[in-house]
Amino acid sequence: MTAHISAQPGDIAETVLMPGDPLRAKWIAETYLTDPVCYSSVRNMYGFTGDYRGHRISVQGSGMGMPSASIYTHELLAEYGVKTVVRVGSAGAITERLALRDVVAGIGAASDSNMNRIRFDGIVDYAPVADFGLLRDAVDVAAEQGVTAHVGQLLSSDVFYTDRPDMYQRLAGYGVLAVEMEAAAMYTLAAKFGARALALVTISDHLVHETHLSSEERQSSFAEMVEIALAAVTR
Question: Which of 95, 133, 165, 206 is 20 to 30 A off residue 11, Cα-Cα?
Answer without folding.
Answer: 133
